[in-house]
C-alpha cells in the first residue's frame, strides 16, 4: 500500500467587499453589545431564556438601539426533549 499525498489548494484572499462587510458586521454587533451593557442587561437580566434572548436581540439590533428600538423578549418557550 502506498500513501497518497494530500493536495491542498491555497484559499483565495477575501475580496475587499467581503472584508468591508465583515468589518461592518463586527462594528454593528459591537455597538449592540455596548447598548446591552449600558442598559445593564448583563447585570439585572434574569438568568433564563427570556433574559438571554433580550441580550441577543439587543446585540443584533446594533445601532438601532440608539434610534429608539428597545427589543425585549418577555416570554420564551423552549421545546422539551422527547422522552
How would you describe what is shown here?
The chain is mostly helical and 83 residues long. The chain contains 3 helices and no strands. Helix 1 (16-38) crosses helix 3. The longest helix is centred in the N-terminal third of the chain and has 23 residues, at 16-38. It is flat, with a radius of gyration of 21 Å. It starts with 15 loop residues before the first helix and ends in a 22-residue tail after the last helix. 12% of the residues are buried. The mean pLDDT is 86.
- Total helical elements: 3
Please count the beta strands (DSSP E, at least 2 residues each). 0
The run of helices and strands is: HHH
Percentage of residues in strands: under 5%
Average pLDDT number? 86
Distance between the termini: 48 Å
Query: Uncertain spans, ≥5 residues at pLDDT below 50?
Result: none
Q: What radius of gyration results from the CA coordinates?
A: 21 Å
- Tell the overall outline: flat
Helix percent reads 40-55%
Instruction: Tell me which oligomeric state these chains represent.
Output: single chain
Helix/strand-derived category reads mainly alpha
How does the major sheet shape up? none
Descriptive key words:
flat, 83 residues, mainly alpha, 0% strand, single chain
What's the short story on this structure?
48% of the residues lie in helices and 0% in strands.
Amino acid at each position: 500500500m502506498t500513501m497518497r499525498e494530500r493536495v491542498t489548494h491555497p484559499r483565495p484572499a477575501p475580496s475587499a467587499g467581503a472584508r468591508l462587510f465583515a468589518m461592518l458586521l463586527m462594528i454593528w454587533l459591537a455597538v449592540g453589545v455596548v447598548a446591552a451593557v449600558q442598559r445593564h442587561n448583563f447585570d439585572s437580566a434574569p438568568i433564563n431564556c427570556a433574559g438571554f434572548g433580550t441580550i441577543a436581540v439587543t446585540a443584533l439590533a446594533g445601532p438601532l438601539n440608539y434610534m429608539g428600538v428597545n427589543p425585549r423578549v418577555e416570554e420564551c418557550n423552549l421545546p422539551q426533549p422527547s422522552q
